Amino acid sequence: MSNPTPPISLKNLRSIAKLFCAVLFVLPVTMRAGEQLAAKPSPPPVEKKEVNPLSFWDGKIILDIDERVRLEVRNNNRDFSAGTGHHEVTDGTWLLNRFRLGMAFVPSPWIKVYGQTQDSREAFSERPNIPGVNGAEGDDQWDLRQASIAIGNLKEFPLQVTIGRQAITYGDGRLVADSKWGNFGRTFDAARLRFEEPHWWVEGFFMRPVQIVRGEFNESDSSDNFGGAYFSTDYLSFQTSDLYVYYRDKQDNQPDLSTANTIDPQGSWNGPAARFVTIGTRFKSNPKKLGPWDYSGEFVYENGDLWASDRNSKQFDLSAFALAISGGYTFKDCHWSPRVGMEYDFATGDDDPTNSSSHSFQNLFPSAHDKYGLMDEFGWRNMHDLRFQLSAKPSKKVDLEFHYHAFWLANTEDFWFRNNGISTLRTRTPTGQDVRTVGASNFAGHEIDFVVGVEPIPHVKVSTGYSHFFAGQYLADTGAHDDADFGYVMTTFLF
Fold it and tell me: What sign does the dihedral 100-106-109-113 (CA atoms) show?
């Protein structure tokens, strides 16, 4: 009696994949290489360490330069309404330029002083020249971006303290991060104390976000106090494991800059008053331990109080949750090393605006452009996002990416929140009144993203991308529902 055919195992699948790659790519290369077997192989070249021409005084003074220019083209990104009679200032083409000049002074291994200035400008746009209004970057000419001092040498002693204006990112930047895509970025006036051992570190901090204000020196918001602790370890050798707790006490209310009745505030908006605790955990695989596989996950819970505007307005009891999980496989034996991945992001929304509780997740200070669609239509709040990823590397200097997103609102009783987790879509009247969309379908739409990144020469990176948003039933149920487009070309010089 013959044995039944065994099911295809994971090991079989990997063998099939390797064979497929070999037939398509490896075999022709091997045949050509066979003709050169008689030739004596030359020794590998000796890599020379590049000398930094911006380093002076035996490395005690080091300069850095960051110049970035980005051309953007957007259509229907804010109103999803096409046609000549529906032109918005958020439609069109504009040029963003950002120049940063930094200097580090390191008189000893125990002390590092760093300062950085920044000049950011937006040209050829119909949007108001005010940071945050109608999504504008606006102008912020020659302001102080960073100025800090770090005391401590973690190679010799486990404690280090850093005080001053800093660019700070924890984990994958979903909650606390320097905003990489935005023309201004994000910094904090902060004090941080770090304790580090070989397999773990913990950092306690107190900080205030710096507000971008046109025509004035940028200062941190004294009414927005943010503190907590972040712990990270690699004791599980196959992954990094993090645990964190944050506390935000925001006492003031900065009005929504997109409303017609708002006076010129000269700067960006960061939402109404709030006071709550955020507790989260994050884990991310170590690619050296899992071969071609990778995974990550983050789970967050929030509890506290929210207000409709300032502390004298209606108060809500906050209880909210969010998660992000992903996994992928890289065909390392294939030409171009393609990676296939899946990701699911979720954040709760408020299910009853008439009561005194809220389940609308608060997204804090994220860097979210590369996470929930490159068109920045969604943030990590009141949403479901299912993402498929495909990437490849034709050469060491070329990266190709394709992303597909499907979006749903977690609750139509809550708003559609955009990339920053504060601005909303189609939910405010010209006088600033909230308008809910109860009863509409919760399917928002699909988005596809294509990105090509090239590093033609050292220190220069060029990236170009195109995105298309296919309007879903939610938009059809609530008003205009035309598709939207976004394209860009960006050049970055880093030294």
Answer: negative
Q: What is the dihedral of CA 421, 134, 256, 279, to 10 degrees?
A: 10
Question: What percent of the chain is modeled with pLDDT above 90?
Answer: 64
- Tokens describing residue 174: 């979903």
Q: Please give the Cα distance from 488 to 69 (Å, whole number).
A: 10
Range in 156-170, 253-267, 304-318 with the lowest mean pLDDT: 253-267
Q: Does any domain span residue 55?
A: no
Q: Please check whether residue 51 lies inside any domain of the structure.
A: no
**183-233 pLDDT, tens digit each:** 999 999 999 999 999 999 999 999 999 988 877 889 998 899 999 999 999
Which phi and psi (to 5°) does residue 478 adopt? Answer: -120, 5
Q: What is the mean pLDDT of residues 63-75?
A: 96
Asked whether 271 and 255 are in contact (CB, 8 A), the reply is no
The dihedral of CA 26, 29, 31, 37: what is its sign?
negative
Beta strands in 396-459 (DSSP E): 398-408, 416-417, 424-425, 443-457
Q: Does some domain include residue 193?
A: yes
Task: Identify the helix (H) or strand (E) that includes residue 251.
Answer: none
Distance CA 362, CA 350 (A): 11
Helix (H, G, I), strand (E, B) or coil at 399: strand
| 127 Cβ neighbours under 8 A, 6+ residues apart | 89, 90, 94, 133, 134, 135, 136, 138
CA distances from 335 to 22, 24, 227, 391 (A): 9, 9, 47, 12
Cα–Cα distance, 469 to 419 (Å, whole number): 15
Q: 143: domain range?
A: 64-494
Asked whether residue 16 carries a pLDDT value surpassing 50, the answer given is no
2 in a domain, yes or no?
no
Per-residue pLDDT of 397-410, as tens digits, reads 999 999 999 999 99
Average pLDDT over all residues of the chain: 86
328-340 burial, b if ≥16 CB within 10 A, otherwise e? bbbbebbbeebbe
Question: Taking a C-beta distance cutoff of 8 angstroms, is the pair 162, 146 a contact?
Answer: no
For residue 83, give the CATH number of its domain.
Answer: 2.40.160.100
Question: How many domains in the chain?
Answer: 1
Strands (DSSP E) found in 89-156: 92-108, 111-123, 140-151
**Model confidence over 265-298: pLDDT tens digits?**
545 567 889 999 999 999 999 988 999 999 999 9
Q: How far is Cα 272 from Cα 194, in angstroms, rounded to an integer?
A: 31
* Chain segment 88-119, per-residue pLDDT in tens: 778 899 999 999 999 999 999 999 999 999 99
